Amino acid sequence: MAKDKPKISLLLTGGGARAAYQVGVLKAISEWYPRVHHSPFAIYCGTSAGAINAISIASYASCFRLGVKKLEWIWSRLHSRRIFAASSLGMSSYLLGQGMARLQSSYHERPPFGLLNNRPLRHLLNQVNNYQRLETQIAAGNLHGISITASSYKSGHSVSFFQGQKEIREWDRAKSKGRRAMLTTDHLMASSAIPLVFPATRIGRAYYGDGSIHQLAPLRPSLKMGADKILIIDLINQKLQQADQTSAPGLAALGGHLMDTIFSDTLTADLENLSRTNSLLASLPQDARREQGMRVIEHVHLYPSESFEPLARRYYSHLPPMARALMRLTGLSPRDDAAITSYILFEPAYVRALIKMGYDDAQEKEAILRNFLN
């Protein structure tokens, strides 16, 4: 990797099944490069489902198109049963086990709570990921760094576990830490453990959940690892008009707002902060910037052109019957409360539709993206 070449960071946010949209964007970008071209990204930062995508792409930093093809192959063949125990027996026995564990004496260690058993996801990640490839790509200079962010239930901090070149230092900021680690499936399971939906994962002596929960500064891992440019692929449409809510919000409306807040609101604030800082730095002379060790960080924020909810309503019947029944028991309608359904609908038809949407959006922004990446 040329030392004078700007380091471009790929930032992939979380969003459950919605992360298939990111695959479509990356597919479009990969087609603009030769078949055996290395990745245009030197740094990868992922949270929740975005972390799973980041690991897969970073493992093939020396051959970008191959990594994207593998990622698309995995996503387009996903079923809910590959993510969580979706059968009647599997779901009922898991929930029964959760209930029985909480009737035991307090000196018995209770398992972390989650409505869905995501053990199948662990098996899938162990099958498709070769974590040793990350260290190989780093040693070859194809990969500068990769971070996976999870939230510590013990400290309440956002912890970014990173792997990369030796010059990357650990960091400690308000509610945010960066810790060097050899990334494994445990880090991905922790980062993608959506609260209440999937159980927390233990790393060391602490339990960790979805990385979006306490992530007050989503751009920080990219900046701390030395990014000069950041491409953000968000999973929340930023320009949709809010529905006219004339009645009191129910469980579904509250759940949808909470999910969107967890996965997006802090990113919006962080981007506003970055824009203000860039404007301030742009007014300073080059010498003054160099003396302070500060630089303008270019960024492109890409997000869906359409809402995912109509697609979730169209394909909600593909959701396993037991999953639909469980949602109804908690007061949710899989079809009408599509905002929540869109996060857990890991079914081929829905996933392929999201990949196509991401591909089309990237093609529409081709001029902007090409100029940014080049």
How would you describe this structure to a colleague?
- Pfam families: Patatin.
- Residues 10-225 form the PNPLA domain.
- This is Patatin.
- By secondary structure, this protein is α/β, with parallel strands linked by helices.
- The chain has one domain.
- Helices cover 44% and strands 13% of the residues.
- The chain has helices spanning 20-30, 49-58, 64-76, 88-101, 119-128, 132-139, 185-191, 220-224, 251-282, 286-292, 309-315, 321-329, 338-344, 348-364, 366-373, and strands at 8-12, 43-47, 145-152, 158-164, 171-173, 176-180, 201-203, 206-209, 229-233, 298-302.
- Strands 1, 2, 3, 4, 5, 6, 7, 8, 9 and 10 form a ten-stranded mixed β-sheet that branches.
- A hairpin with a 5-residue loop joins β3 and β4 (158-164).
- It is globular and about 65 Å long.
- The two termini are 15 Å apart.
Key features?
44% helix; 15 helices; 374 residues; Acyl_Trfase/lysoPLipase; ten-stranded mixed β-sheet; alpha/beta
State mean pLDDT (0 to 100 scale).
Answer: 88
Largest sheet: 10 strands, mixed
Helical element count? 15
Structural class, by secondary structure, is alpha/beta
- Give the overall shape: globular
Keywords: Hydrolase, Lipid degradation, Lipid metabolism
Protein name: Patatin
GO molecular function: hydrolase activity
InterPro entries: Acyl_Trfase/lysoPLipase, NTE, PNPLA_dom
